[in-house]
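Page 37, continued from 36.
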């Protein structure tokens, strides 16, 4: 049984191997056939794409020839148009240039805030490649006449105004030609075709003058103020520093000068007032024979009454001593005022020197390319000198008044003292 099963198993193995080889061979054959079919399809697809490329190249060549032909025809038509235009071509060029200039002028004109959209139409005409139409030429002519006529008019109209918080609000505006526009609250400027209040209104009664013109109705003449530079001067107003900003430019030296000036003026006024009161008391004492301790002359009279029984030399010594005791009281504080009047301009000069040093340091760092930097630094440096002079002038005047009152009182006391001695000598 074992011998019979052995050969059967071997035969089965051989048959299995044969079957497997047949299956592999059949599979390889099918794969080759499939590859061949795919190769044939790819060649067909390649031929199709090549045909499409050739057709596209032929179409591109045809379109290129057509474009060249159209370019030649267009150039011929342009030449014909240029020949037919003749002098009109130059005329249209002048019209475009005029439209460009007028559009730039209208962008900054206050009149454009009343007539919106004029500059856009002119810009479209100036930038168009085609010839301007009759309507565009008529619009150019009409806009020129409109601008020229409006420059001589004072009109009132409603327009949107940009407020300080960037809100837009419709308000009644008065426009004086192309020079100024304002409401009852102040002057307006044109920024990008919109009216906006100035950040800082001009002083010197300009706002009140604008209010007079705004509130005027009917016939008659009213005096107002305009900006002949068409807004440039009003734009400079916001760059002009206020009094507080000027003082701040002086720095700590400027504030010190102000403190010195206030202290000196108060002291001088106090001494002057006290001397005036003392002068009235002395004049009243001259007319009275009853001495009073409340005034210098009264105290000298009391000294005279106390020592009038002594000899003349001793009496004169006592009276001179009484006068000398009163003189320091009359001159008290005047020397301080005099010193402060001299110190204030010196402090101002010191501040100017320091400011110039800082300015030259800035010039060293940044160069002299910006004239505003130099002018602004020098202006700030000179503020302390101005403050010093402003402080010195009233201090000197008040010192002169107070010193004059003190000298007059001293003369009265000396004269009265001499008269007391003379009266005692006669007795």
């Amino acid at each position: 049984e074992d011998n019979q099963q052995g050969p059967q198993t071997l035969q089965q193995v051989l048959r299995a191997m044969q079957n497997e080889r047949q299956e592999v061979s059949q599979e390889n054959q099918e794969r080759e056939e499939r590859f061949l079919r795919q190769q044939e399809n790819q060649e067909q697809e390649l031929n199709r794409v090549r045909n499409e490329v050739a057709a596209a190249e032929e179409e591109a060549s045809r379109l290129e020839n057509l474009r060249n032909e159209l370019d030649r025809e267009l150039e011929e038509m342009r030449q014909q148009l240029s020949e037919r235009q003749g002098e009109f071509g130059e005329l249209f060029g002048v019209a475009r240039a005029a439209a460009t200039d007028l559009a730039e002028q209208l962008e900054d004109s206050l009149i454009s805030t009343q007539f919106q959209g004029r500059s856009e139409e002119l810009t479209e005409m100036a930038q168009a490649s085609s010839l301007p139409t009759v309507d565009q030429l008529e619009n150019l002519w009409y806009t020129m006449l409109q601008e020229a006529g409006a420059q001589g008019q004072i009109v009132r109209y409603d327009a949107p105004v940009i407020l300080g918080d960037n809100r837009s609000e419709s308000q009644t505006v008065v426009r004086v030609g192309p020079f100024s526009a304002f409401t009852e609250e102040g002057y307006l400027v044109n920024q990008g075709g919109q009216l906006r209040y100035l950040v800082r209104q001009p002083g010197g009664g300009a706002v009140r003058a604008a209010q007079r013109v705004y509130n005027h109705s009917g016939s008659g003449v009213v005096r107002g103020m305009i900006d002949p530079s068409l807004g440039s001067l009003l734009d400079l107003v916001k760059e002009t520093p206020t009094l507080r900003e000027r003082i701040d430019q002086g720095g700590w030296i400027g504030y010190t000068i102000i403190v010195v000036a206030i202290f000196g003026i108060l002291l001088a006024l106090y001494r002057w007032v006290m001397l005036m009161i003392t002068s009235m008391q002395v004049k009243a004492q001259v007319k009275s024979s009853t001495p009073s301790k409340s005034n210098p002359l009264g105290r000298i009279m009391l000294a005279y009454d106390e020592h009038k029984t002594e000899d003349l030399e001793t009496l004169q010594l006592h009276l001179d001593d009484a006068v000398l005791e009163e003189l320091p009281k009359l001159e008290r504080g005047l020397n301080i005022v005099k010193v402060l009047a001299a110190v204030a301009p010196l402090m101002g000069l010191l501040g100017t020197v320091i400011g110039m040093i800082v300015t030259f340091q800035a010039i060293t760092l940044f160069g002299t390319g910006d004239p505003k930097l130099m002018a602004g630094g020098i202006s700030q440096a000179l503020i302390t000198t101005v403050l010093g002079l402003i402080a010195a002038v009233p201090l000197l005047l008040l010192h002169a008044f107070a010193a004059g009152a003190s000298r007059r009182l001293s003369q009265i006391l000396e004269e009265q003292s001499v008269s007391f001695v003379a009266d005692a000598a006669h007795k």
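The first strand starts at residue 154 and ends at 162. Flag for discussion at group meeting. The beta strands are 154-162, 168-176, 180-183, 186-191, 194-197.
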